[in-house]
Design a protein that fits this description.
This protein is an alpha/beta fold. The protein has a single domain, classed as Vaccinia Virus protein VP39 (Rossmann fold). Strands 3-2-1-4-5-7-6 form a 7-stranded mixed sheet, with helices on both faces. Helix 2 packs across helix 9. The longest helix has 15 residues. The protein is globular and about 50 Å long. The two termini are 33 Å apart. The structure holds S-adenosylmethionine (SAM).
Amino acid sequence: MKPQSTHFKQVASEYDELAANGLYATLAPNNKGGRKSEYVNAVFDAAILPRLPETGVCGCALDFGCGTGSFTRVLAQHCSQVIGVDVSEHMIATATQVCEGYAHVRLLQIDGESLPFENASFDHVIARESLCYVPDDMLGGVLEEIYRVLKPGGRFLWLEQVSTNPFWQVHPGAPNLVKRDPRVLRDELAQRGFKLLEQSMVRAPRFPWIYPLWFGLLPRRLIPALARWEVAWHRRFDQHPRRWWDALFIAERPRP
Ligand SMILES: C[S@@+](CC[C@H](N)C(=O)[O-])C[C@H]1O[C@@H](n2cnc3c(N)ncnc32)[C@H](O)[C@@H]1O
């Protein structure tokens, strides 16, 4: 289903263009899918994967705003069924190639305002830096949809750029994106009926080894290990930068 609102049409067109930059096109868009984007992707994998159950009990997962499908493909190795949705047609086309060979993966172009799934369909919903593109007046509705399609006891893993500084919450270079205050995210979750299980810091911009990695001074093969170290560092010290950071919220749809 093509996006209906002007806002979502703009987001779709922005990401349609980025799809040309390959598997790591979406995270750190200015890096055009280069080493920095690959590293950010690895940090997000390192934050989320240990929070999912073992292969075999991961069940059915929805990847909301799946982008190129880089994480959808990882989910496919853990879960019995995976659905990736994205507002961008070109992202869905890329994800379809990336997930080729995984018969239990389905990919759909939708804008998330309403999700075309039965109530209580998913064990997990994952949204990695996608709901920051949903404007304030639509966020509640999208979260209600995510709640509706989760099974009771199912988990919502929401990884998001956040900021407590109004100056950094919106940026002229990325007019469709908003970095909300973590308190806003917690309030939104509570209002929709979610129970917050955990909140942790995942990534800080300008973490020391991002520049040597970016400029090729550190070998690419170190990316997964460096990504795991960064996640472990933030979980241990949880020191928020003044500008913005990435945080992971894990929430549950409570059982009746
Ligand atoms: C920063 S990228 C992240 C992609 C992917 N989650 C990842 O981790 O690589 C954000 C993605 O969310 C998608 N998106 C933004 N708003 C959306 C909406 N309302 N419905 C579906 N997808 C959306 C964009 O098209 C884009 O592919």
